Amino acid sequence: MTKTISLLILLMVWVNNTWAQFYIENRLTPEGSNEHYTLYERMDYYGVPGVSIAVIKNAEIVWAKGYGIVQSGKNKNIDSETVFSVGSVSKIGTATAILRLVEQGKLNLDIDVNEYLSKWKIPENKYTRNNPVTLRRILSHTAGLTVHGFADFLPFEELPTTIEILNGTYPAKNDGIYVNIPVGSEFRYSGGGTQVLQLVIEEVIGNSFPEAMDELLFDPLEMDRSTYLNPIPEEYGNIAKAHNRSGNPVALPRGYQSMPEMAASGWWTTPTDLSKLIITLLEAYDGCEDFINQSIVIDMMTKVAPGDYGLGPRIGNAENGAFFSHGGANDSYRASIRGYLDTKNGYAILTNGTRGSELIQEIRAAIIKFEEF
Known about the structure:
The protein is an alpha+beta fold.
């Protein structure tokens, strides 16, 4: 009897997963419409040549699949091993690495972050003198730091160093990073703050940021198709190429931009690798401490006033409970991840087109339709 029930449960899960995939591939519904379209029709409508998706149920990847092509006009198909630029989703990887260093006793969330910096420091001014910037404030975007985001770099452009980015000096394209409102007074999203974390990691580990992230994140979780190297080497292979709003290739002849602001926006990865991290955090939240301890992940998933972000991710609520999430938007790529803390469901969606965010909204709606099965 028990064996029969188990088989029935497995069959029900398989049917529902297949049904969810069917809806994503064949019945996408634009907001405000009653019409249904195939995924490829909506990709064509938005000028997005390639999409890759992974869906998580009960802390397991139930399916992962790529759709479309690596580059418009070419015949190389997207598959589950194709790497995409994920924009600000990179901040979740960076945050996890920072929290591992906290767990190891190498960092403290609540002391002046300048204590960890020797090559550059957050400039002291009237806003920081009596209320210094901390890692907790940076991770939750409540530190009052400037610079929302960063422009990407084309193949022929010189790339800035971490210090040049922080100072806002050539060849960096951004202004310098500093505090210009009282620390902790308001939520203000700051990619600039995440670049401070990049320097913290480089100084504490004593390696380049990509090497440090291999050590702290990718190697332990066997995320074999992930790197923060920028530009990603062409020999890395199976790279989703960049496309503009019309779906035309850009950043030629290489076909993709560079994001030297690696901690904030430089992660290249797959939905499967992203799902490994999502699942690890979901399980750690429930007490599985193989990679990171429960208490620090609970801290990570707790909003820091006055914003809606925890220590890295945005924290939200839905009918089926609290979730953590983050989006990503580089010049020619869009990404979205989400993990539900109670159901242990989630997803990762990556695209290689500038209008990918609009497509992601429709895919996400189809996934959420089946999230409680």
